[in-house]
Amino acid sequence: MVAYKTIELPIAWLRAIRIECEHCKLPYTYLHSKRNVFCEAGIPLISSDKSMREEIIRYSFKRIKKDSKKEKQGVGLCPHCRQYQNWMVEKSRTTRIRVGAIVGVISGFYLGVFSANLYAKNDDVLAIIVAITMAVVCCIIGWSIGSYNALNYGPYPVEFQDHGSMKDEEILELIKTSQDDNLNPLFAWHLAVGRKFFQKDMKITLGFTDEIGDLNLPHELKTEYLVDQFEESIQNKSLTEENKACPQ
Ligand SMILES: [Zn+2]
User: Fold this and answer.
1) Span from the CA of 189 to the centroid of ligand 1 (angstroms)
2) Does some domain include residue 248?
3) How confident is the model at residue 85 (pLDDT cuts 50, 70, 90)?
4) Is 243 a member of any domain?
5) Tens digits of per-residue pLDDT, 212-225?
6) Is residue 65 located within the same domain as residue 177?
7) pLDDT in tens, 105-135
8) How far away, in angstroms, is 17 Cα from ligand 1 center?
9) Is the predicted pLDDT of residue 246 greater than 70, yes or no?
10) What's this model's pTM, rounded to 2 decimal places?
């Protein structure tokens, strides 16, 4: 029997995405943050921790690079008309309702089996009816909870705050103040809106992706430039989990 050792590397990465709102046709930028935990298995004494970490960084970056090219990622309320994009709402509803319904069916079924064992021990038909009824009831409850927690179509009230989105002038101001304070604008934004990093996370910023392409952003903060930089660092093996992926 071969014993394996495993190493985990959690990576938190940020990207600010500028899009044109499909409702009011005005541009805005929203902060997309994601966290993945990547694992690598090795053989003790043969695989060094260093080489295993390098391997994780190499393949995790491939995945992050692929993700960074995808459109329709993340969620952000339009600060002009206070609406989410339809694709954001659809995605949120599909995911939450589906998860709610599946969790409901599973927990309802087990609850049903448990109840049937208690109250219908000698009646198989009744036991099956109880289990199925509980599964259906819990599925409906899960569906409703999922639906309640999902995003909604239409404008949100003024009291509803979403600091994860900014207008162009706010973005340019954020970049300027971050440069003055020698901070990375995306990390500053992420922390300012109360989002957190875990201590062990390797933090990566993929800068700004301007899907419209007409905002005057510094070259070194653009996603394409940063992706190339990371790729180069990985090839030179100069990118480690020691947070060098976090430009300040
Ligand atoms: Zn809008």
Assistant:
1) 21
2) no
3) very high
4) no
5) 999 999 999 999 99
6) yes
7) 787 777 777 777 776 667 777 777 777 787 7
8) 15
9) no
10) 0.78
Number of domains in the chain: 2
| Distance (Å) from CA 78 to ligand 1 centroid | 5
- Residue 32 Cα to ligand 1 midpoint, Å, equals 18
Picking from 163, 158, 171, the residue whose alpha carbon sits closest to that of residue 214 is: 171
- Find tokens 């940020």 and name the residue: 14
Question: What is the sign, positive or negative, of the torsion defined by CA atoms of 175, 180, 183, 187?
Answer: negative
Same domain, 92 and 59: no
Within a domain: 231: yes
The verdict on 106 and 125 lying in the same domain is: yes
Centre of ligand 1 from the C-alpha of residue 22, in Å: 7
Report the pLDDT value the prediction gives residue 138, as an integer from 0 to 100: 79
Ligand 1 centroid vs 39 CA: distance in angstroms? 40
